[in-house]
Specification:
The chain is α/β, with parallel strands linked by helices. Helix content is 44%, strand content 11%. It comes from marine sediment metagenome.
Length: 272
């Protein structure tokens, strides 16, 4: 995506995929909808992204962070038609979008076009906000491959309270906090891909191990009960449902919105 890694992520990935690695991966990036002002901007950004990624095609191209307002822009500027044109020109293979809004808006977008993929925020805490669990099932029923982001809720589910840890300790299947979060998402038959943010080799190793032990409908009745209890504990302690995605930034008044929400939630979460 255009904004990740302070704008450098595509260049970093382009370097990493040289020397034969490009053909071994499914490469996706996103059209920065917050920068698009006119129809011609579609190729302006796509061509720059292809250059940064050092490739001549994308396996999928997403509209970044669709909401009611940005989807209106997609329609007004006829950007889906540009996506289809890019497919005809061999620049992209599949069309999708990432999403940050409410269930009614999600359904409206899903019903508007024959999408290949949809990316939503989903974890055992966030089953009733944004696209919701209902939206996950709705997209799947339409034949859309659903990609999940924020499976550990921006790292919050990796750092449980003492109360949550006590719940985990009583489980027959002992798991790390991260594994509980990831297994919940992989357990859902409607989920095609899980995107997990990792910042160290240790995190990569833990995620690989978790993935190796995952499977659809693999959680026991006891596991699901534990996860339900964990979700209740976390929800009680979170005042603002923010994952620090930073789509609200920059603030016109200079306020670091995610940071302020994080401080508020951390105080509520820790009681300090």
């Amino acid at each position: 995506g255009w904004i990740y890694g302070l704008g450098a992520s595509e260049k970093v990935i382009g370097e990493a995929l040289k020397d034969g690695y490009r053909e071994k991966v499914f490469l996706v990036t996103k059209l920065p909808m917050f920068l698009v002002r006119k129809t011609e901007d579609f190729y302006k950004y796509l061509n720059q992204q292809l250059k940064s990624l050092q490739t001549d095609y994308l396996d999928a191209y997403f509209f970044h962070g669709l909401s009611r307002n940005s989807f209106k822009k997609v329609k007004e500027l006829k950007l889906i038609e540009k996506m289809e044109e890019a497919i005809e020109n061999g620049l992209i293979k599949h069309i999708g979008f990432s999403f940050h809004d409410t269930l009614p808006v999600f359904k409206e977008i899903i019903d508007y076009y024959d999408w290949d993929l949809a990316q939503i925020q989903y974890n055992y805490m966030d089953t009733a906000i944004q696209a919701t669990h209902e939206g996950l099932k709705y997209a799947h029923e339409k034949g859309i491959e659903v990609v999940v982001m924020e499976p550990v809720k921006g790292g919050k589910l990796a750092n449980p309270t003492e109360e949550a840890l006590e719940i985990m300790k009583k489980a027959s299947n002992q798991r790390t906090p991260v594994d509980w979060a990831l297994q919940y998402v992989w357990n859902q038959p409607e989920v095609a891909v899980v995107l997990s943010g990792m910042g160290s080799k240790k995190m990569v190793d833990e995620n690989v191990e978790s993935a190796s032990n995952s499977g659809i409908n693999s959680l026991s009745e006891e596991d699901n009960k534990i996860i339900s209890e964990l979700a209740d504990i976390y929800r009680k302690s979170i005042l603002v449902q923010c994952t620090a995605c930073k789509y609200c930034m920059p603030c016109p008044y200079g306020v670091n919105i995610p940071e302020n929400f994080a401080v508020l939630n951390n105080v509520a979460y820790s009681g300090q």
